[in-house]
């Protein structure tokens, strides 16, 4: 069986790393583990983040050309289904629906988000396209219960919805962390939610002046100067590692005593799975969507702010046995629910429900 795969937000071979790219790559691995051949059908990026209707129309015209190219391509006849990852109002799938219809093949989505409140305003046109694409899908795999609520509410009568837990692009667990090194924070540096998490981290560190802690920060981006200014009061207790590739990041996890990342408005936050797979306890706020990823624990509420995070981090730093117990629980959680074999089983079972079998 041969499938077409498309990620309108960012192609899996895009040069800039991100959580979205990591998930797209993991999906390709899981689909191939099911026993299918997968083609990257298009690299056209439909994302328009500023709410510019003129730019949106330009992208729509480019998408029409891409649809014509794919429908007319000889190799397109080999596809048994089309799968789109991450359809939403800022990056709608403008290609998959018309191509699948023209070729007479099933149309499937993974992580599609409904946002009907966006049907007015600067993204109205794109929001209509995203809703139409979601309506056309015979099957949608969703990552979070929060997405499931609107998908279930607005689903056409014959549409199938299947819960696919977020997962890492690996079949087994990495080496267990020693839990003896500095705390670790991992996050891209950009304005908005990421910078907000870094601000909360600085506040959390200030709440832990009674402890002899150290923190490594893995990440980079345009606001790095602002992040460095936030951490300047702590001197050499905070070390900036820059952007790390997968191998060097794994080495950082193998030493880290805990992962400190508040998770402001994180849709998924794959760093939580990476850390937990290495047995690193997570200190994060109890935010919507986080429950999809984190091993059960008493995470502090958002209203507790930095004080709640500091309380949790302090408990782990003071008690090695507690760190080890939490790390073992985190590893077991990832192994049971968030690795390639579990994802491949879910994908195979879901695809079979609409008659797609390798």
UniProtKB/TrEMBL annotation:
Its EC number(s) = 2.4.-.-
The membrane spanning regions, by residue number, are: none
GO MF terms listed in the record are: glycosyltransferase activity
Superkingdom? Bacteria
| CDD domains, A to Z | GT4_PimA-like
Which UniProt keyword terms apply here?
Glycosyltransferase, Transferase
SUPFAM superfamilies from the entry? UDP-Glycosyltransferase/glycogen phosphorylase
Protein name per UniProt = Glycosyltransferase family 4 protein
Q: Which organism is it from?
A: Sulfitobacter sediminis
